[in-house]
Amino acid sequence: MTDNAPKGEARPVISATASKGRTGAYRRLPMPARYAINAILVLVFLVVGELMIDGGAISRYQSTVLEQVGIYIILAVSLNIATGYLGQLPLGHAGFMSVGGYGCAIFIVRMMETLGVTARDFVTGSPVCGLLFVGGLLVGGLCAAVCGLIIGIPALRLKGDYLAIITLAFSEIIRVVMLNIDSVLGFKLTGGAAGLTGIPGYTSFLNVFVVVAVVCFLIHTMMKSRHGRAILAIRDNEIAAEATGVNTTYYKTLAFVVSAFFAGVAGGLYAGCIGVLQPAVFGFMKSIEILVMVVLGGMGSMLGSVISATFLTILPEALRAFSEYRMIVYAVVLILVMIFRPQGLLGSYDFSLSRVIERVLNHDFPWGKGGTGKGSAPDAADHEPSETTDAEEVSADAGR
Amino acid sequence: MPADKKRRPVLVQVETPNLIPERDLGKMPVLQAEHLGIDFGGLTAVDDFNIAMGRTEISGLIGPNGAGKTTIFNLLTNVYRPTRGTVLLDGYDTAGKSVAEVNHMGIARTFQNIRLFSKMTVEENVLVGFGSQMKTHLFADMLRLPSHWRQEAEFREKARELLDIFDMRRFAETEAGNLPYGAQRRLEILRALATSPKVLLLDEPAAGMNPAETEELMENIQRIRDEFQIAILLIEHDMSLVMGVCEVVGVLDYGRIIAKGTPEEIQNDPKVIEAYLGKQGVK
Description:
The complex is a heterodimer. By secondary structure, chain A is mostly helical. Helix content of chain A is about 75%, strand content about 0%. Chain A has helices at about 5-15, 30-55, 60-85, 95-115, 120-125, 125-155, 160-185, 205-225, 225-235, 240-245, 250-275, 285-295, 300-320, 325-340, 355-360, 375-390, 395-400; strands at about 20, 25, 365, 370. In chain A, the strands form two sheets. A two-stranded antiparallel sheet of chain A has the order 1-2. A two-stranded antiparallel ribbon of chain A has the order 3-4. In chain A, strand 3 (about 365) and strand 4 (about 370) form a beta hairpin. In chain A, helix 2 crosses helix 17, helix 6 (about 125-155) crosses helix 11 and helix 9 crosses helix 11 (about 250-275). The relative contact order of chain A is 0.16. Chain B is α/β, with parallel strands linked by helices. In chain B, strand 3 (about 30-40) and strand 4 form a beta hairpin. Chain B has two domains: about 1-105 and about 195-285, P-loop containing nucleotide triphosphate hydrolases (Rossmann fold); about 115-195, no CATH class. Helix content of chain B is about 40%, strand content about 25%. Chain B has eleven helices and twelve strands. The interface between A and B is large, with 31 and 43 residues.
């Protein structure tokens, strides 16, 4: 500890490239290390989860709930692009989810027939099934993205309530189309009100959370690039963004389409998790449910979306024993949060594990700096954040 | 200020009502507006506005409140579509272009009421300005390909160099909304400069600044012109700034240019005094 402080001070003299932060000599983690740390956390989470399922510590029912947690995390994080980052209020996320779900399920079921793969192969696992799974999710995502493009171009000329209404109407149109398209086409495609059955159970804890990690990574990297900055600029001040050369129409549509794409991916996972797709599931309430997750977690905060999606998926399940009261509790939680923290649980704060580690390295703590000072204070402080890091591990790796 | 006066160029009449500094003569004017006008319903907000700006000219637009100064900025940047007239930037017509496209063509502006991306950091604000020069594909950014890193590093360095102009590097990681007022105004100018404009439009850059800050701003405006070799058109109510820094001044009243000339000419023009002080002001 005492060795560290002088070294930290000497650093800027040695390397001229050391970036000048507020404190002058702020030690930073190199980029590869940041990615490695997050990758390791994801791996640890997956391995521990998988071992617990195999070992029977998590029951079949609980692992299904975990899969749904993952699916809702993707939905909330993807809706967060349109609400939190872009600052619009679309209410048709369930529509994109349903398009993705049907797209993915129909693709996989049809391809199974042509490739001669059976539902059992998905349980035992084979390379073809892996390809089918990835292909199915991509097809589902692309179907949803195309819908997002079609609806986004006209809808994004509107703002606020009007955009909400047009997207709401759109998701209702999707629902009605899914319900009736069979009789229009004259052959079986979506199965109508009875639903699309015979979807193999291709969704598992492992692949849901791999997809969650990939989706969170892709959204994070998009937002930390020129595209993401343009989207955030539109949220902060559309007029200024346009005057600064941001093509607002393009970036609004981009955010909307990416949001729809990942909702479609989540829909594909959902189809494999539940095994049956019914249009009635993807009603207005589903969109609201996802929106509530985003608002509760804090618009513009990825970790917030992850935490609230986890919480709001597990809460109704945990309260299943008091099924008469669970919706009341659910509602009360929402009312309390909106009264006491209207900006959402985390506001627009985003958690970065690397930042925490950097702070520890620099002895830069919220309760005061121990940077150059030596003695017991930094020592004692050093252990505390590492505990919180452990506690936040699960959400952190999902968030990166 | 004596140094400025020495530098003040001889003005030449190019094409009647327009004036440009002699040093810019022979080069195509960077910004030209001809007979520009806009009506809002029955109200003519701006009428018959003409300007030809030399490539390195600093000119000012003054006028009483409601004269239509900001409207002219909005017309030049296509925020409003003109009812009449044309705007040529470097010889290219801006008609039918979107606001962002006009910016790409080379007009950047700041706003009277500060419009920063207040939740983003100072550096990110400038990087948004660089956005149209960054070329990585969405997938390259999402997958963090080497091209992404190369470009990010290059433009972050550029952004910090730009921040150095106003000595704002130390604020690079501060949220723009938390900056002090004067720094927010400066950041707006830097963000506009990041789009590598040919013409910079400043809408009341000295609003809310104290005399010392205004003095500093004057130096900075000239420095920006010299360093970037761009034309600057500014709207300002602070006469010390206009008279100190502008080479050509146009006076706007009720949407029409009523006088044009060097600051000295303008100060003594009876029509200008009348517009500001009413008929009795003219003796």
